[in-house]
């Protein structure tokens, strides 16, 4: 059996795609290596693929911080609750809009599409949240993200592909609309619901803006906002420590085990990104299928 020969064009494609993939992966490798290396030793530089002085002290210091545990609870709560409520609302709306017999179907579609075109801006949005008593509240993370027109379109397109004969046979058996939705539509909608869950879940997990501008209570800050604040606060201290190290002086505010603001920051980055990296591979196959739905049918 003869071996397959690659053309020069195919070989070049493989090389370029491999280099491109490595360029995307390497920043994560660098952060992981830095977080597993002694902080003082990391200030010497020359860390590329393997830690030079392995330690878990950076992670120990991070997990000892009560604020981080509280922020993680807020992030997990808003992500799980946000996924459930968002997918439920969008699926119900998409199911109704997928029915051609719905009175005012065109009007309702245009009505929910209009807010995606026009935006009042930051100040009117802030005033609206304030009037709804959402400022400095946990629900400011959940309620504004309950609706997404594109997610509704994706789910509606998927539901329109379900054979109508299934619902007709269910009606003959005495099922109502709600029973049909629960027992027929939802079980068949696993791929698109997983896709939407991934979309909104990543949005909730990565959102730092809401906590930074609409929440002042530190007990309600999500982990991404806390990370953003720590990055800002540690930047000046990290720079001063690096300058002191280069000049041969004493490092400032370093603990006994050698953890530094930079190494703690890297450890926190790993802890923050790790859950999404674990979940994404299990939903990736649904992600590709869900993205293609909108291009098949209008």
TrEMBL record:
Pfam families in alphabetical order: BPD_transp_1
Record InterPro entries: MetI-like (IPR000515), MetI-like_sf (IPR035906)
Membrane topology recorded in Swiss-Prot or TrEMBL: Multi-pass membrane protein
Name the record gives this protein: Carbohydrate ABC transporter permease
Primary site of residence: membrane
UniProt feature coiled coil, ranges: none
Entry's family note: Belongs to the binding-protein-dependent transport system permease family.
ABC transmembrane type-1 domain residues: 72-277
Organism: Paenibacillus xanthanilyticus
Gene3D superfamilies attached to this UniProt entry: MetI-like
Localisation per UniProt entry: Cell membrane
Keywords (A to Z) from UniProt: Cell membrane, Membrane, Transmembrane, Transmembrane helix, Transport
Annotated TM spans: 12-33, 76-96, 108-127, 139-159, 180-200, 264-283
Entry-linked PROSITE patterns: ABC_TM1
Superkingdom assignment: Bacteria
């Amino acid at each position: 059996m003869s071996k397959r020969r690659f053309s020069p064009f195919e070989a070049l494609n493989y090389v370029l795609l491999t280099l491109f993939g490595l360029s995307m992966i390497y920043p994560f490798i660098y952060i992981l290596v830095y977080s597993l290396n002694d902080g003082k030793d990391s200030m010497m530089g020359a860390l590329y693929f393997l830690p030079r002085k392995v330690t878990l002290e950076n992670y120990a210091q991070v997990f000892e911080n009560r604020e981080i545990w509280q922020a993680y609870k807020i992030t997990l709560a808003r992500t799980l609750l946000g996924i459930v409520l968002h997918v439920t609302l969008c699926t119900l709306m998409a199911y109704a809009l997928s029915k051609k017999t719905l009175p005012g179907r065109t009007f309702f579609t245009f009505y929910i599409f209009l807010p995606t075109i026009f935006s009042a801006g930051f100040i009117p949005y802030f005033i609206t949240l304030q009037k709804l008593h959402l400022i400095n509240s946990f629900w400011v993370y959940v309620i504004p993200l309950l609706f997404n027109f594109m997610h509704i379109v994706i789910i509606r397109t998927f539901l329109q592909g379900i054979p109508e004969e299934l619902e007709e046979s269910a009606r003959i058996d005495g099922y109502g609309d709600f029973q049909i939705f629960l027992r027929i539509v939802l079980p068949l909608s696993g791929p698109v619901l997983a896709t939407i869950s991934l979309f909104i879940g990543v949005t909730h997990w990565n959102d730092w803006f809401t906590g930074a501008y609409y929440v002042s209570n530190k007990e309600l800050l999500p982990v991404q906002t806390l990370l953003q604040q720590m990055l800002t606060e540690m930047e000046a201290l990290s720079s001063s420590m690096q300058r002191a190290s280069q000049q041969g002086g004493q490092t400032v505010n370093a603990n006994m085990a050698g953890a530094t603001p930079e190494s703690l920051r890297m450890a926190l980055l790993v802890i923050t990104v790790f859950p999404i990296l674990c979940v994404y591979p299990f939903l990736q196959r649904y992600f590709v299928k869900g993205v293609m739905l909108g291009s098949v049918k209008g």
